[in-house]
Amino acid sequence: MSLDLINTQQVEAIVGPQTWEEVSLVADICTDKQIPILSLADTTPEWTAEKWPFLLGASHDNSAQMKAIAGIVQSWNWHQVTVIHEDVGSWTNGFMPHLHDSLREVGAEISQFVGLSPFASSDSLSRELENLEKEQCRVFVVHLSLPLAVRLFEMAKKLKMMEKDYVWITTHHITSLVHSINASTISSMQGVVGVKSYLSETGQRFQDFSSRFRKRFRRENSEEENNEPGIYAVQAYDAIWTIARAFKGSKRRNQELLERVLQTDFDQGLSGKVQFNNHKVAPTQIFQIINVVGKSYRELGFWSSELGFSETIGKNATHSSLMNDLEQVLWPGGPKYTPRGWTEVTKSKPLLVGVPAKSGYEEYVKVEYNQSRNSTSFDGLAIQLFEETVRSLPFYLPYKFVAFNEISYDDLVGQIGENFDAVVGDVAIVADRYKHAEFSHPFTETGLMLIVPARSSNKAWSFIKPFTEPMWASITVITIYNGFVVWLIERPAHPELRGSMLHQIGVMLWLSFNTLFSFTRRKTAQQFVKDVSGGVVVCGASCHTDIYSQPHQHADCPEA
């Protein structure tokens, strides 16, 4: 048909292919004939500028909408999404990489891709949805053409998947055409949150275009209820306007016309600024967030690539990285609370966690087998930490501990991926084991450590620490013993050491303490006793020195 238009009608430019399959068929012919073609397809690969220099993308690149979808997912703290897409190359190539990267930036991931044929039967749709119902994830991102999306939502409602705890997010391919969906179909999409291209409808040019469009559409499609212009009508109008501006003042066609189109730069486009970069119109930077409710939809707010979410557009708008500050979302089933995004699946396969049964540290890992109950219990710091970590996850993770009765930890780690999905225990991080598994962060910092006693906070009296009660008792006994020995040796030679029993006891006690401080050297016996007493003092001093030479740690120190 395009060849007929070029040869018979002698057209000098073509506007209109809306799918990449149509564009790729026409692009070869237009390049050969040097006829500019303005494509309205959403996706235009980067390499087309070299292969087909006369092919121009007149539709705004909507890859930024993936960041808006990721922002919605982040706002409600969901970490897994299921993507339902149309199984056509042009739909997936420009969509999947952007969505995948955007979700990773906000700590989320795609748990499953579900590709649907454009001609999928009702049985096929039912089968796919039933399989999704058995899975854990309850957040669905739908990237389909409108006819297929309508059939999908009707089937989802029939299977009761448009009710409580389900989350449905649609891309602009569906959301931008919601205004054209009839009432019976819109009832199947209640609670859907969508991203649509933003159109500024306040300008006089848009009002004039909208008035003319409604009159003509009503005249040619009298049976249709909704006659509002959508994003595709506006983009087609901007494409025609671009060609008309390029024709104005141009005497030559073909290459010169292409160059004039590429030089287009005006801010008065109904769909936004029209400026070509690498043979494509500049991407859309602002999207509208809507919520399907009742017979139509509610406008929740806006999202821009630079500022995030806001209730309005303008200089005075308040922006946020999360959409929680926008209007209340009415989710499927009518609940006003936020769905958690996942459900517990009893039939799902549990995570098999290997645990060393013969650990050398029971405080860390303890495995006990109860023969009477034929059951195995698992306890210890590592087990408790793992259980607490699983409980803190924002989704349900079934797991099962399995005792590993062999001694070799290398064998235990080597079975990850075969018999176990993970291992919990006192497993050392060794280079060879990285071949089989990745390790979590160690509980403590690496390096050498010393365990030292805490230093007393009362430093003024720390010198008496060696003098414990047994020490004082020993000193007293030895001192009295020394006095007794001196009294016994010196008594025959000194009459003053004799007398009544009470007198002799007093003398003996006096000699006990006198021998410690007297420096007379008249008697060998006394000197011997002094040497013994000196030895006791030296031993006490050694103990005192030993205590003060030990490393200590303040009890209130952060490292303690």
UniProtKB/TrEMBL annotation:
- UniProt keywords, alphabetically: Membrane, Receptor, Transmembrane, Transmembrane helix
Would the keyword Transmembrane turn up in this protein's UniProt record? Answer: yes
Q: Does the keyword Membrane apply?
A: yes
Single GO cellular component annotation? membrane
Domain named Receptor ligand binding region is located at 2-294
Cite the Pfam families for this sequence.
Answer: ANF_receptor
Q: Where in the cell is it found?
A: Membrane
List the InterPro entries.
ANF_lig-bd_rcpt, GABAb_receptor_plant_PBP1, Ionotropic_Glu_rcpt, Peripla_BP_I
Q: Which PANTHER family match?
A: OS06G0188250 PROTEIN, RECEPTOR LIGAND BINDING REGION DOMAIN-CONTAINING PROTEIN
The name on file for this protein is GLUTAMATE RECEPTOR
Q: Which organism is it from?
A: Salix purpurea (Purple osier willow)
